[in-house]
Amino acid sequence: MTxxxxxxxxxxxxxxxVALSVLIAVAASYSALDLAGRVTAAKGWARxxxxxxxxxxxxxxxxxxxxxxxxxxxxxxxxxxHWPAVLLSYFVAVFAAALALYVVSRKEMSSAxxxxxxxxxxxxxxxxxxxxxxxxxxxxxxxxxSLLVALSVAFAIAFSYSAxxxxxxxxxxxxxxxRKIGSAFVMGAAICAMHYTGMAAATFTASGxxxxxxxxxxxxxxxxxxIISVTLLVLGFALLSSLVDRRFHAQALALALAQAKMExxxxxxxxxxxxxxxxxxxxxxxxxxxxxxxASASLRWLAMQPPNLEEAREAATRTxxxxxxxxxxxxxxxxxxxxxxxxxxxxxxxxxxxxxxxxAGNEFVKGxxxxxxxxxxxxxxxxxDRIQLQQVMFNLITNAIEAMHPVEDRPRELRIESTxxxxxxxxxxxxxxxxxxxxxxxxxxxxFYTTKRDGIGMGLSISRSIIEAHGxxxxxxxxxxxxxxxxxxxxxxxxxx
Length: 497
Description:
Elements: E1 12-13, H1 15-41, H2 45-71, E2 73-74, E3 80-82, H3 83-104, H4 111-134, E4 136-137, E5 140-144, H5 146-170, H6 177-200, E6 202-206, E7 216-217, H7 221-271, H8 273-303, H9 309-337, E8 344-347, H10 349-359, H11 361-367, E9 370-375, E10 382-385, H12 386-403, E11 413-420, E12 424-431, H13 459-469, E13 473-478, E14 484-491
Parallel strand pairs: 9-11
Antiparallel strand pairs: 1-2, 3-4, 3-7, 5-6, 8-10, 11-12, 12-14, 13-14
Helix pairs in contact: 1-2, 1-3, 1-5, 1-6, 1-7, 2-3, 2-4, 2-6, 2-7, 3-4, 3-5, 4-5, 4-6, 5-6, 7-12, 8-9, 10-12, 12-13
């Protein structure tokens, strides 16, 4: 249909295809939110694989939504598409998807980075849309309303910024599927608003010039259905892969936590050596004393005239038996402590803190303790034994929880901070417990000194020994109002910034 005055073509939309384009937009948005978490969780080559495959899948989703939205629009004249330009628009979509996944998988996303990335991504999506518009081949001229074009670009940038923020927020979220779905609907609606605003910016007028159809192809209804089907299959496969990977990652994490608990249990056994020293010495002294007595008796029986060989034989037998018992005590002690030498490696103390917090989760629940962390970003690496440093953190945290057990008139709060200066990394563990007297601030680190009724007094002593063996120091201070703070510092690893 045309108007004779301006020869303006009136287009129409296939409502079913429009609805399917909206479905693709929502599915692509949900995939983006889900894939962001996998890229963030992965490391090494797996991270690169997720980034690459995720970018391809998301790129297909973004491109298909726009192209399907264009196929939903029909004009009174046949329309073909210049396939090299359409292919170029797909690569633009992949670039925008790769940028989005890379940005949201970073440890931090500042406002400046979010805005800059949103502008670049938004301009890329707008470029994708208008490249597809330019790819149209038909016996008609296309003119654009500058105001609506600018509005569509603004929509694209705003959508991109919001999508980056939402993806960054939900990348580590678990158990909030309804929020992720709601965000996907919001993002999908924003994508569609940008696309159909861009379509509204175009005015088509009849032209008597035949279009150049070289390198062009028309898309039938069957082709449109194929594009939609393949897109939804690709996005579905991406979501399924993400789900499977998340399950495997959760299982691996559970195994790692179990292994970490076993390692901490071992360190706990080793740490109890000082506490058990007296009883072990007692166990060894008993058989050794019996050995001396039996050997002396054997000598006396042999010195008699005539020698009492039967009694001497029995005394010698007791000597051997008691010597074997002493040997067994030593073997059991060695079996408890036998371990490979400590593995010193470059460590992120923030990561060590998070691992111990995960292990101590049940203790926080049982003690009704609220945990707050203020961990400095980009903490430089330190050189240390991960298990030993976990043991120090675990000891400080459990001591803090126990110090807050008597507290009933105020919240039980545990705050853990990490800071850095020119040559060291410092960790502080604050509690709101009963506090420490000034006279105890140094004595609590002495072996066998304890302020707890059922304590033996070796945990802090061993913790200080571990920290000092790492070239650092451990100390305590009493807070002015309530509670205490334990702090330790470790030197930066060589070459750490």
